[in-house]
Amino acid sequence: MTFNQKQQLDTSKDYIVPIRKNNLKTVKDILPIANPDFDGSFSEHLLLYGKNGNRIYLLGLGEDKHDAKLEEAFRKLCVDTQKNWDKSIQIYANDLNDQQIRKAIIGLQLAQYEIGEYKSTKAKAFTSAVSICTSANIDAVLNEGELIGQTINRIKALVDAPPNIKTPEFLAKWSDDSAKSANYKCTVLDEKELESQGFKAVLAVGKGSVNKPVVIFNEYKGRTDKDVDLVLVGKGITFDSGGLSIKPSTNLHYMKSDMGGAAVVLGIIELIAKLHLNVNVTGIVCSAENAVDAASYRPGDVIESYSGKTIEIIDTDAEGRLVMSDGLSYAVKNIKPKYLIDIATLTGSVVRTLGYSAAGMFTHNKEMAQTFSEIGYKVNERVWPLPLFEDFESDLHSDIADIRNFSGKPIAGAINAAKFLEAFTDNHENWMHLDIAGVSFGDSPYAKMKSSSGYGIQLFLEFIKTLESK
């Protein structure tokens, strides 16, 4: 699908008319009938025919409150009707602002995602050209919307990929190829280099798999100075069996999605590089496969970490926080960024707390929390604050090591995981942890099984733009 701009709508050809609820009068001059049975409710659509037999799709935008998720309306319209589209289609956009146009483009791009990449028979690619019809200057909006949609589709493909293909080495190769095409720096540490540099926790988690762990560093520098505005640390567990604390078999096949945080980090670095933003951002992906083998680390083991702290292993299924601890420690010791954020599909506890509607947000920085909350509502990738009270620190006490990786209690699991990570941040004043287990992967009207949502790309892009403005 390609996008371009036209100054005028050609009413003799196919076009889409986005309409606010109960606001038909604003577009009456371009409709073939005066009073169609359509009120503009969110995501509803109605097909009319013009004098030349051309198709006219009325698309409901709903009310102002629906602006944050307009891409859903355009995506659904496209999925439902694009089989009937000709080689080109127009969108009447004189009544749309830049944000709405951007959302429209993202939605149309999302409709092109093909989840059946590994089927023997592939779906036919959709190749229509989309003309945005408006007299406003929207060159930047067109470019950004198209790149955002493409990036979301790329990370969805990563998360949905099967674990026999999507190994840590696969993520490293994906990242290296991306760096070459988008012009940023990618460095991959293999098992030998992880050993020499002291990534002990990453190595411990990966010991039980034939697919060896890696740590990926992606560095985008939009400025010439060396100061790093933001480090993003992503959990890249390409398959999580639970290790020796093995998970039940029900839904175990979905544990291919346990690298959702890593996918966001990989995607956002690629996106900001393509957009040439005036920021310096580093992404760190700590990737391993948590498998079961004679060499697997055990409950009761004490392992070392990059920070120098020792960790008592209570549960090998609390592995994500282990690999993340090494990434966080590396960032605070060696990069010293202004902002430090980790993102991970970390706990089932956050799903039980917030369901599938918001990510769990943990930070002591009220300004960061407010910024992320506002952005989350703006782009429909919501976050919700959860506490980091000192009360929870005793849950991670160990008699034989500096800290243990799991409290063993049936309560406050997401908080305990966040408190564990906090211990490896050296009290960084601008640190945030996002637990995206409930929003990264789940049910969708566009797939019969659970699949990736693409959550996080729009959230982080808007946050990084705030850093650029500073």
UniProtKB/TrEMBL annotation:
Q: Where in the cell is it found?
A: Cytoplasm
Which cofactors does this protein require? Mn(2+)
Q: Which GO terms describe its biological process?
A: proteolysis
Q: Binding positions for Mn(2+) 1?
A: D240, D317, E319
What EC number(s) does its UniProt record assign?
Answer: 3.4.11.1, 3.4.11.10
Gene Ontology terms, MF aspect: manganese ion binding; metalloaminopeptidase activity
Fetch the Pfam families from UniProt: Peptidase_M17 (PF00883)
Residue span(s) of domain Cytosol aminopeptidase: 155-459
Q: How is the cofactor bound?
A: Binds 2 manganese ions per subunit.
**Positions annotated to bind Mn(2+) 2:** K235, D240, D258, E319
First-level EC class: hydrolase
Please write the reaction equations for the catalytic activity of this protein. Answer: Release of an N-terminal amino acid, preferentially leucine, but not glutamic or aspartic acids; Release of an N-terminal amino acid, Xaa-|-Yaa-, in which Xaa is preferably Leu, but may be other amino acids including Pro although not Arg or Lys, and Yaa may be Pro. Amino acid amides and methyl esters are also readily hydrolyzed, but rates on arylamides are exceedingly low
Active-site residues, record numbering mapped to chain = K247, R321
Give the UniProt keywords, A-Z.
Aminopeptidase, Cytoplasm, Hydrolase, Manganese, Metal-binding, Protease
Q: Name one GO cellular component term.
A: cytoplasm
Query: Where primarily located?
Result: cytoplasm
Q: Which domain of life is it from?
A: Bacteria
Family in the record:
Belongs to the peptidase M17 family.
This molecule's function is given as: Presumably involved in the processing and regular turnover of intracellular proteins. Catalyzes the removal of unsubstituted N-terminal amino acids from various peptides.
Q: What is this protein called?
A: Probable cytosol aminopeptidase
Source organism per UniProt: Winogradskyella luteola
